């Protein structure tokens, strides 16, 4: 691969990334209804993409299931957890009537998308702007540092059968990037340096989300989840890391106590 080919998508990626960062930062800063609506729209569009990959050419099913997911996500935020949980699972079951194949994949990814969206709203609502930013920056650092390191360093592939472009150098560099983020957040807050290890674990979980989506795309024979974002493909291609990271934090945070203890 020539140097030009290696970096051919960089301009489009940077422009789209800047737009996503601005919109995301605005939503996180505003919080409340603005952030809730943004998360609901993202979740609905990801399920719209998911249905399109699993059953191409079914625009009606895409629209219905995507809309149902967005509405379920938004409504669940304002309900007690006991009532929110069945609402979060309902779109996953609803898809069984529209899909003839890949129902298990649809169910698993839809639950993952909705639980991730719910987790993000919980982090923003209960922990505030700073910890929501920490989560997003850890995922972005994992992706960006891994992207550039993988292309500059190269080396052995991480899992070529599933993700042909991903290298061990990029994967490990993503962990380093997340550790640096965790270090600076711990340094300038009242939490312990254990946040470094938590950040690396969240980074790994985000990479697992990325790998899971890559495996699903490989199975369905598609390159990108959609063409919504120039240079990036679809929303699932950009938010797959957030899916893994947020669900991991939502579950593990209940056991380890998050944020980690005072330094």
Automatic annotation (TrEMBL):
Subcellular location(s) per record: Cell membrane
Annotated catalysed reactions: a 1,2-diacyl-sn-glycero-3-phosphate + CTP + H(+) = a CDP-1,2-diacyl-sn-glycerol + diphosphate
GO (cellular component) term, any one: plasma membrane
Enzyme kind, highest EC tier: transferase
Superkingdom of this protein's organism: Bacteria
Keyword list, A-Z: Cell membrane, Lipid biosynthesis, Lipid metabolism, Membrane, Nucleotidyltransferase, Phospholipid biosynthesis, Phospholipid metabolism, Transferase, Transmembrane, Transmembrane helix
Keyword Transferase: yes
Pathway membership, UniProt: Lipid metabolism; Phospholipid metabolism; CDP-diacylglycerol biosynthesis; CDP-diacylglycerol from sn-glycerol 3-phosphate: step 3/3
Lipid bilayer topology: Multi-pass membrane protein
Residue ranges of the TM segments: 12-29, 35-54, 75-98, 104-121, 128-148, 168-188, 242-262
InterPro entries in the cross-refs: PC_trans
Enzyme Commission number: 2.7.7.41
Pfam families: CTP_transf_1 (PF01148)
A GO biological process held by the record: CDP-diacylglycerol biosynthetic process
PROSITE patterns (alphabetical): CDS
MF term (GO), any: phosphatidate cytidylyltransferase activity
Family as reported in the entry's similarity comment: Belongs to the CDS family.
Record-given protein name: Phosphatidate cytidylyltransferase
Biological source species: Sulfitobacter undariae
